[in-house]
Amino acid sequence: MSNSDPKQVIVDWLIRPSVLISESKALGEGGWRGQIRQGGHDADPATIRFLKERSIPGRQIHSVVFESLMDGRRLKMQQIIQVIQNDNGGWHTRGGAGGGAEDGPIREHPWVNLAGGGWPDDFYMGGPVIDNGLDIAVVRLVTGNGLTIEDTVDDGFVLFLTNRKVELPIFSELYDRAGGLAARHEAVPELRYEPPSA
Q1: Is 195 a domain residue?
Q2: What is the overall mean pLDDT for the chain?
Q3: What is the per-residue pLDDT for 1?
Q4: Which residue range is the domain that position 129 belongs to?
């Protein structure tokens, strides 16, 4: 199998069987849940669509939607998948984040529902924008160490990728077409990352 095409590497990974390793659930009713799985996503190859991508030398992230046959059910899924280029020019997957693509959260104000990973040193993140009719055009992330990363909203979606160190907290700022700040919120409040002490 050739690994010279990053998108084909992602397809090959998505169609592999998925095995649940562990699961955590949010406190209280509803809320998010986290799963750790090995393998792929049991994706139906005919349903895989690439929506958006970002790249820097040696790294790419792709927003992908697909139908998964995981756990015997047909689920519409959305993933942010990172691929890394090795010294020989080949590509391999290194992490992904996402979840169901059916119904996102309902918010009273504009919001970006982000998933990602790789911090502090290989940061990537992305997700759908809930604009509540305010025509959000740009989303900016502002990190705890002062880094600002920006993306335009394309088909309701944003992606962020950097090779610079990213520290929590991370705040999302959503701007309308006129450049006005429409909303600001903590991007990933459920994360309580503590960097290792030196």
Answers
A1: no
A2: 88
A3: 43
A4: 111-186
